[in-house]
Each structure stands twice: as structure tokens, then as C-alpha cells.
Amino acid sequence: MSIQKIMVIGAGQMGSGIAQVCAQAGFDVKLNDMKEEFFARGLGTITKNLSRNVDKGRMTESEKEAILGRLTKSLDINDANDVDLVIEAAVENMEIKQSIFKQLDTIAPAHAILATNTSSLPITELAAVTNRPEQVIGMHFMNPVPVMKLVEIIRGLATADDVYQTIEDMTKKLEKVPVEVNDFPGFVANRILMPMINEAIYTLYEGVATKEAIDDVMKLGMNHPMGPLTLADFIGLDTCLYIMETLYEGFGDSKYRPCPLLRKYVKAGWLGKKSGRGFYIYES
Ligand SMILES: CC(=O)CC(=O)SCCNC(=O)CCNC(=O)[C@H](O)C(C)(C)COP(=O)(O)OP(=O)(O)OC[C@H]1O[C@@H](n2cnc3c(N)ncnc32)[C@H](O)[C@@H]1OP(=O)(O)O
Ligand SMILES: NC(=O)C1=CN([C@@H]2O[C@H](COP(=O)(O)OP(=O)(O)OC[C@H]3O[C@@H](n4cnc5c(N)ncnc54)[C@H](OP(=O)(O)O)[C@@H]3O)[C@@H](O)[C@H]2O)C=CC1
What we know:
Blueprint: E1 5-9, H1 13-24, E2 28-32, H2 36-55, H3 61-69, E3 71-74, E4 85-88, H4 94-107, E5 113-116, H5 123-127, E6 136-141, E7 150-155, H6 161-173, E8 177-182, H7 189-205, H8 211-222, H9 228-235, H10 237-251, H11 260-267
Parallel strand pairs: 1-2, 1-4, 2-3, 4-5, 5-6, 7-8
Antiparallel strand pairs: 6-7
Helix pairs in contact: 1-2, 7-9, 7-10, 10-11
The structure holds acetoacetyl-coenzyme A (CAA) and NADPH dihydro-nicotinamide-adenine-dinucleotide phosphate.
């Protein structure tokens, strides 16, 4: 199947990055969010990223304009009525994602593939609310999307082989590297990464060391580009908590219990870099 038109749902940090790389690769992209201001924020990030590429001589001004010309605003999910692929990157919440997938199933053309950028939620459970479970698949990009090479591609129980192949080919067109995984809580990336981050939060919670010391140990001792607490802030503490909950519920194993400090920060609205405060404070 050939993909030309894409809708990305959610213009947050992931959705805007996904829309950017799709438009850069020549696809026509509708970027959908619920409110004008969220779309404007996402488009602002994309424009800034492209301008940096122009400044660094990696792209001409006219190439930048052509990419922006392939991006269209959408504030109505019904705009999915003529696309070949939807990539959903709304908030990490099963009820919200299921509601979006139910609507998409009635709106999107019969041939359209419905992909989700979920970091941990079961693809099979999302597929089950549609009448096209064989056309539902996980397409898990990494943050920041324009920089990170990996896309974890997750097969739901019913995902058809040709749908998998189409998404793998499309991932390569985005100049990303696809890695195939099966549908288990947290897939591979977050089953391994998130317990490490949660353990770093416990280490802080138990007073073993300061946040700076914990980050330094992992940066200088393990050559991680960011310490785990900085990375948690970067991902979003709400997203980290949702992922830990999914692992905890999905495996029923206490080793995945979210640290109470993580819960407390999320309840306080300290969501990390995107809200201006998490383990660290950020200037807007
Ligand atoms: C939660 C999930 O479900 C899955 C996930 O995504 S988990 C998170 C996975 N991501 C990570 O682990 C990221 C870890 N951090 C890193 O790799 C690096 O710190 C980083 C790439 C983010 C920044 O790299 P750095 O060398 O420290 O900083 P910096 O020199 O400013 O940036 C390097 C390049 O990335 C670009 N960049 C950095 N942040 C960016 C962003 N948010 N958007 C676009 N480009 C960005 C910079 O412009 C720069 O590009 P050039 O060298 O081409 O000019
Ligand atoms: N952060 C990360 O590092 C990664 C996240 N992911 C996954 O990507 C998804 C998005 O995460 P991220 O971009 O970080 O989150 P953000 O909070 O930055 O963005 C989510 C966006 O989706 C919008 N949104 C919420 N509900 C709807 C809806 N019903 N219809 C349309 N838009 C909606 C939000 O609006 P509002 O602001 O009003 O809520 C917001 O603009 C999540 O599933 C997450 O798990 C995957 C890989 C990495």
C-alpha cells in the first residue's frame, strides 16, 4: 500500500516531531490537536527546528518553506476522512486513546492504517475497539523525534503482515531505523528504560544522593547522554508515571510500583520540562 497523506493526532512534543519528520520526508501531513493554541505551539517548535537546520546550512530557506507547505492545521478529527495513515500521539491514557481510535475507525477511509505512538499501552486493546484490528499497529518514536534514530514497531495480536511491512518501509523513508517487537507492557524500550528511571527516583526519595549526584553518576559513570532524572523531566513525569502504571498493572509485579515521589510531583503539576518544573526548574 502506498502512503501519501498522513494525519498526526496531538501537537505536543512527540506529535510535532513526528509531523516534522513526515513532512521532511515528503508526505502531506495534517497536524491535529484540540485547540488552536496547541497546534500553534507545535508548529512553532517545528519552525524553530527547521530554521536551525537552515542556519546550519543543512537546508535552504525554500526547502524549509516547502516542508512547512506540506503541513496543514487540523482542529477536527473528521479531517482524517482522506488520509492513508493516522499516527496518534495524544496523551498516554487508554480511555482517551480508545475514544480517538473509535472515532477514527468511523472517519478514516477503509484502507487507512491506524498507528499509535503509545509508549506502553497494549496495541491489541486499542485495536479491539475498531473494526479493523489488522490495520492497527504501534509506531513508537523516541524523543526528540528529529534526532533519535529508533522507531519501535509493535505488532498487535491481529496486525496484518502487509500492514507491518508498509509501516516498516515508511519508517525507512523517514530515515529512521525500525525494530520489530511484540505487544507486551512497555514493549522493549520502556520495559527496560522506565524501571531504571523509577529506581533513580527511589534513590532520590530515600535520600541516597542529591538529584545532581544521581544524574552525574549515570552520565559520567555509564556515559548516558542525560542523567535519569533529567531524562524523566525531558520525557514528562506524567508520561513516566503512566508508563510505570502500565507496567505495574500489566505484569502484576511489585517491582514496577511507581515511586511515591513521582506520583507526588505529577499531582503537584510538576510535569518536568514541559511545565517548567520537575526534578529541576526550567526557564520558559
Ligand atoms: C518515553 C518513551 O516512550 C521513549 C523515549 O523517547 S525515551 C527518551 C529517549 N531519548 C533519550 O534518551 C535522549 C537522551 N539525550 C540525548 O540523546 C541528548 O541529550 C540529546 C540528543 C537530547 C541532546 O544532545 P546534546 O548533544 O546533549 O545537545 P545538543 O548539542 O544541544 O544537541 C545535539 C543535536 O540534537 C539537536 N536537538 C537537541 N534537542 C532537540 C530537540 N528537542 N528537537 C530537535 N533537535 C534537537 C540539536 O539541535 C543538535 O543538532 P546538531 O548537532 O545537528 O546541531
Ligand atoms: N514524551 C516522550 O518522551 C514520549 C512520549 N511518547 C508518547 O507519545 C504520546 C504523546 O506524548 P507527548 O507528546 O510527550 O505529550 P504532550 O503532553 O507533549 O502532548 C500531547 C498532546 O496531545 C494533545 N491531546 C490530548 N488529548 C487529545 C485528543 N483527544 N485529541 C487531540 N489531541 C489531544 C494534548 O493537548 P493538552 O495539552 O490539552 O493535553 C497535547 O497537545 C503519549 O502517548 C506518550 O506516551 C512516546 C515516546 C516518547
